[in-house]
Amino acid sequence: MPGDRDLKYVLVIAGSDSCGGAGIQADMKTITSLGAHAMTAITAVTAQNSTGISGVHEIPAEFIAMQIESVMADVFPDSVKIGMLSSGRVIEKVAGVLGKYRLRNTVLDPVMKASTGLDLLDASSVALLKDSLIPLARVITPNLHEAGILAGCRVTNPGEMKFAARELKKMGPDVIITGGHLEGICTDILYDGKDIHYFQAKKIASENTHGTGCVFSSSLACFLAMGNSVVEAARLAHQFTRSAIARGYPCGKGSGAVSP
Questions:
Q1: For the chain, which end, N or C, has fewer CB atoms within 10 Å of the first or last residue's CB respectively?
Q2: For the domain with range 9-246, which CATH number is right: 3.10.129.10, 3.40.50.2300, 3.40.190.10, 3.40.1190.20?
């Protein structure tokens, strides 16, 4: 563990996974394993296991803002990772607080659907996400499905990923579209407004992939907090997530968990 002067503080604003594979739990494991300190503002509590989600209990938007304000009053984070936000009211509150503090290293993972298929973001809130929260982020990390919804186009291959990344960059932040669902070669694409950067490797054959997106976005937030450029942080997060998948393990009857 680094000394106090080197310790980085990462605030996670996201939902809880009662099975421990994704969400706040995966974020905290990732941040801790990278030698940083995780702080949290929980946006929702889920009742779920490896086979699916039984229910979602949204934390009142005012209380989510109170959690963030309480942290900010005492420990100013070096970076922020935003995950599950389940309603327009929550998006508005989070955007209001983040806009107030002008946090530079904000990574937004626009979680819209659980890996088991359940919608986690009200469709009517997508426009609000695009208008009020995405412009406040330094980087957004949608997967293929999320990029398609946000960009309003089909995203199924590297060429379409490139087009969508350019469209999404118009909203402000740098864009990393994660390609874990591509066949054969796993390709993440970063567009920083000037160049397209590719992070590619052979797909790891594993059924233990629960939490992959959370691990990628929270590790990216850590690497940005440590002073890396977006390009270098993306490269490191790509490698770190692959290692987490390679070390994944069975957990329950469904998809097993990655191990950050």
A1: N
A2: 3.40.1190.20
